[in-house]
Predict the structure.
Amino acid sequence: MSTSSQKIRKLILVFGCFGLTSRPFYLHAETLGDAIALAYQSNPSLQQARAQLRGIDENYVDAVSGLRPSVTLQAEAAYQQQRYGAATIDSSRSFSANPPTTLETNTSVGQIVFQQTLYSGGRISTQVRTAEAQIQAGRQGLRATEGDLLLNVINAYSSVRRDEAILAVWRASVEQFIHQLDEAQARLNAGDATQTDVEQARAQLELERASMDSAAQQLESSRTAYTVYVGQNPGTLAPEPELPGLPASIDAAFDVAEAKSPELTQAVISEAASRAAIATARAAYRPSIAFQASYGYTGDVTPIVDKNLERDLNASATITQPLFNGGLIQSNIRKAVEQNNSDRINIEVIRRQVISNVASYWNQMITGEKNYKLQGLQTDAARAAYLGMGQEYRAGQRSTFDVLYAEEVLRDAQIAALTARQAAYLGEAGVLRYIGTLQVESLTVGIPTYNPAANTRRVVASGALPLEGLLLNIDALGAPGTGMKPMTAPPLAVAPQLRAAAAAVDDSAPMATQLPVQPIPGSSANYLQPELRTLPSADPASATVRPSSPAPVSPDSPTTPDATSTGKSSQADPIAALLAHMQAQMGDASGANS
């Protein structure tokens, strides 16, 4: 077997390592389960969402505290000095030869005040219902955050593996094109090829190197995303496992999404919370009953003698019935009703978004799997064509261009197969995300999961009293209804038509190249029209203005400017110089063809 055939078969083996059937063996590799576990335990975005949910749990205490007793201790010490005027002193001389000129008093008050709301007309009980719904909606928001994190982790994991394989394909392709350039040079030296064959191989080699650098940059971008979501740099990643829980059909996926989607479930629960808020607003019309008792002492600050202090014991029950408040209650009711209408409509908005996402990822999964299989067939055919093309090239039956093209087709097929496989895998994860089953407990085993209900139970139990449940039930007996009404909508259109079209814009009209930059008066402070500055020059007299367009450059002129030349347009504006050079070459080519 010739050396060239050995090199070609070696490169084909390299391609096959990242191909469609064979998988490399990984020893102690980092698995997708490891990445999910680390992200689930340490990702700051998920930790932030958990902290926010624990804050939402406190809404229950805020709502129920209105039916819990309040006990306060009040203490006051006061000192007063009153200095009499001359008229007051003179009038007091008829009673005393030496009347006082000042009066000093000091008092102290200490008491304990007990307050208890007995009935709020249903306002507090409906606030509790709203808080409970907000907690449940917050849990669904946490589920959505967890699903987004796992989807990003899976995407980053599979993207790193895809880009590693693609980079290896590009490296193997570069090695093969180096060999092809060497072989073309050898054939030129032997008189079997032309300089055009050599330059053609060299141009393709440089293109392959540039593409390899781009592939390396894409790999680093994927590794960065992996580090952001997982919390550590990726090591040797094991092959992606099969994802559990995929529905058998798109209709089954839609059914699961409508039942388990965290976004849709959150929207339904949020509507229940705003519906309870309507009852809270209506309860402001209802009477409320409160009980208050206080016990304390009043007397001089010094000396404090128990028998000289006055003891006060007060108890009262207050019934409050709003009569008129300038329309504020009715305004709050209308506001609550419209907020609930918005939440009711939002359910359909979210449902459509969820269904759209499920369908999009489902189609991505199906298309990716089909393309993966088709790219596999293309890779097999391209590999056979590449081997045959190499043999025919050495026999003088194929040109250098034919071999280079066969190499490109094989490489592109390998990359397309890797890309299609990752797209299909991400499609599977996306379907699971939006049907609501991309959760740690559904994907993995052995990972301790976060239980938000534990914190809720702790919060509910803190400060609770035995009679709290009884008072809530009594308060709920008189709670008003929500009074939901059908939502209004514009009447259905009859034979809708578009208005007559305006005059068409002339296709010869100029493009928008100069935009108005003057701001609206009063919208910008101290706005001045900017002016371009002139670059400083050592000799102002010799300063020149750069022409608006570069002068034509002859293809025979040197690319390096003359040292005595003051202009540096070729260095300052390489794009303009390159365009001028290309125009000159095209002009020469046209003249030669003529």
